[in-house]
Amino acid sequence: MYDHLMNSYDKSLSHSGVSGERLAKRLHAVSRIGLTGDDGSRRIAFSPEEQQAKDLVKDWMKKAGLQVTQDGAGNVIGRIEGKSSTATVMSGSHLDSVPNGGHFDGPLGVLAALEVAQSWKDENIVPEKSYEVIVFTDEEGARFNSGLTGSQAMTGEWTEEEKQNLRDENGLTFEQVLEENQLSLQTFREAKRSFDNIEAFVEVHIEQGKKLEKADLPVGVVQGIAGPSWLNVSFKGAAGHAGNTPMDDRQDALVAAGKFVSLVEKLPRKFNRTCVATVGKLEVKPNGVNVIPGEVNLTVDIRDIHEDTRDTLRDAIMLLAKEIASARKILIEVEEIMNVAPVQVTKEMQQKASNAAETVLNKKPLFLPSGAGHDAMIIGRKTDVAMLFTRSKDGVSHNPAEWSSLNDCVETVHVLKVLLEDLCSASK
């Protein structure tokens, strides 16, 4: 990976204390931990591999002069004390991965935040405000199908009932997994911290889309992080023999579901250009070749960075399901099983990020939404947040083919550095 990163690197981008070669070496070193046969990453939450990656980053933090701690949820915190203020600015991301993921989703955000701290040390700069580099535990949620664990612990945005119901693929409870890692529900509770003096959190992440690639820009400014609403939809008709039931005397649940799926695709654009809706899971019963489908259960994932339009779209999709079922004389059940509020990046934070990008790139940046959830979404409920996206080749993520050029990664670090120096200055 190191050679591939360095092959097309423009070394003139290494300046102001930022080293592309150092960043490439660190991305490479993290990628070797939990390396899969497909040259992907497997660092599942609370695994030895995730902790090994954390320990490596902790060592780099110490060498960069940071005070390093690991809290009761497994979050790693590297801190630089500010010269004249108790206020704190944070930046970071995560090191865990999906079972066969890429090498940039998460680690780039951690190492970009660390590279800024390292650049300050190399340039003998101490920020006015305190600065923390954060490695959040279990952002991806691959172990329990419930992510953002570390940021939830830090903010207190979780319930004990929810965590106690979690099981991994081996049947281990969340509490048992904590105990395997010398943690407990008690230490997890104690990871909650006050945000009274935390003024901002900035997260760098690969885009997980193609907008920056199409715009031929290395870095983009995030406007907001979409919150998902998930619906379970059940169409219940009548199963029957495929040969003996006339076409005009059927209650075919799959035909109803098929019409629903095709129309769901067309609804988002009627409400907002940032709305999306996806039918990602579908189960047909009895699922026989010669049997009219009697029941179809499916899910709809609805997202937007604006809660009002997201919820309006959700209501329209629920109404659509009921209208289709009624027209075909079949039963319908619709249940919302998840509703996470979107997080808006304030205009002020967007402008600060935009100014930083324009300073580095000498051109106007692209503003774009984040359709995926990130730790910044949880932290954003407690303090101001900003996000920077790095161009990702072909928009690929959660896949060994995930790739961002070292040029784009280093350009992002420079933008992050300018933004953090603004946020860490004496006047916010």
Please give a structural write-up.
With 428 residues, the protein is of the alpha/beta class. The protein folds into two domains: 2-226 and 342-423, Zn peptidases (Aminopeptidase, 3-Layer(aba) Sandwich), CATH 3.40.630; 227-339, Alpha-Beta Plaits (2-Layer Sandwich), CATH 3.30.70. Helices cover 35% and strands 22% of the residues. The protein is built from 14 helices and 15 strands. It has helices spanning 2-7, 20-31, 48-63, 107-122, 149-155, 160-164, 174-180, 185-190, 211-215, 253-264, 307-327, 347-361, 375-379, 406-423; strands at residues 67-70, 76-80, 88-94, 130-136, 198-206, 219-225, 227-236, 240-241, 276-285, 291-292, 295-304, 331-339, 343-344, 366-370, 384-390. The strands form three sheets. Strands 1, 2, 3, 4, 5, 6, 13, 14 and 15 form a nine-stranded mixed sheet that branches. Strands 9-11-7-12 form a four-stranded antiparallel sheet. Strands 8-10 form a two-stranded antiparallel ribbon. α4 links the parallel β3 (88-94) and β4. The mean pLDDT is 95.
